[in-house]
Amino acid sequence: MEKSQPFFNFKRGDIVDAWGDLAIILDVLRSEFTDNVTVYVRFVRNIGDSRPFDVLTISPQSPQGTQEWHKAHPEVLAERIAKRQTYIQREIDNLMSLVK
């Protein structure tokens, strides 16, 4: 069985804009036998959460929205991480304000 050209063209380390949410591709695993792809991705919104990454299993028939993803710039990533840091610090400060 001959596989078609890859439909998911991102690689490890790429910064992607995924429907307005920023993420970094951690790994891309391609099946040797099918067009299926397993993508490990870390969304900025998950920084500080107990879930360190998301796993998507996609195929040309079921791309799960990844066909709308596009590359993003490191500057945008830095801005989003700074916003996340501010949010996390505010949460910590609020929690510490409860401590007597």
In short, what is this structure?
The protein has 100 residues and is α+β, with helices and mostly antiparallel strands. The protein contains 1 helix and 5 strands.
Distance between the termini: 67 Å
Quote the average pLDDT: 92
Largest sheet: 5 strands, antiparallel
How much helix is in the residues?
10-25%
Strand order of the largest sheet: 4-3-2-1-5
Write down the secondary-structure element order. EEEEEH
Report the structural category. alpha+beta
Overall shape: it is elongated
Compute the CA-based radius of gyration.
Answer: 17 Å
Report the strand count: 5
Report the uncertain regions. none
Strand content: 25-35%
Number of helices: 1
Task: Describe the protein.
With 100 residues, the chain is α+β, with helices and mostly antiparallel strands. It has one helix at residues 74-97, and strands spanning 15-18, 21-30, 37-43, 54-58, 70-71. The protein has a five-stranded antiparallel beta sheet with strand order 4-3-2-1-5, with helices on one face. Strand 1 (15-18) and strand 2 form a beta hairpin. The model has no long low-confidence stretch (mean pLDDT 92).
